[in-house]
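User: My instructor asked us to take a sequence, write out its structure as tokens, and then describe one feature of it. I'm not sure where to start. Here is the sequence I was given:
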Amino acid sequence: MSITRHKVSRIAKVFERSRSQGCIALMPYLAIGYPDVETTLALAPALVEAGADIFELGIPYSDPLADGATIQRATQVALRNGVTSKVCLEVAAEIRRQVDVPLLLMGYYNPIVHFGQEQFCAAAKQAGVDGLIVPDVPPEEAGELQMAATANQLDLIYLVAPTSTNERLVTVARVAHGFVYCVSLSGVTGARSRLSVGLPEYLARVRRFTDLPLAVGFGISRAEHVREVARHADGAIVASALIDHLDRLPREQKVAGAAAYIRELAGSTARP
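Assistant: Let's start with the prediction itself. The structure tokens for your sequence are:
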């Protein structure tokens, strides 16, 4: 039984449009300030043109517990480049001036608390951000952040995993807005050669508790992964694999090469 209320937002509109077009949303992750801020700003419009529907913008943090080696490395580079929460908000505002797709700030709780939860959410709204992903804040402890997000028309996105109990899924469904972030496996982020064989059953179980869109992240790196997600969910999040792809490209080819990679993945978003 569905117990989640939809909130009209730019995020909801993207999923509605994708559904009406018979495809899923493609959701690249950009680590703000990796390899530098200028490249982040150049990537955003290029990836939208290539087929990106929603951006997850990573705020660098010294101890990213949910992230694997690739994003940890990118985070350290961004921190050395002097990227702070304030810089991330400025980058988000500049990206908003360039593109109209939803923007999600993905970061950890400590920098948000240090910034001030109400102040951070107000600044995010002012920058044109649509939502927040804060992996280390469970719904039971998100009260103050949830209130600040709601007051500023931000969707606070919650994560679930294959190990989530039915009781946890009920709890998330009651407070979730925008979409539910379905971690595809038990572990940290990182590109994998194959997705979990239990993914269909896991997503079907999550569906029992919410009518919000389901977006799958952690491990998606290939067109065949996106095709598999399109059979069972509403969005595919591509994070570590995009950073790995950027790493393999010469500086002068990073934007064009990343766009070509996203274009390839976007070609596999059609629902079967």
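For the description part of your assignment, you could build on this observation: The two ends are 25 Å apart (CA to CA). Try explaining in your own words what that tells you about the chain.
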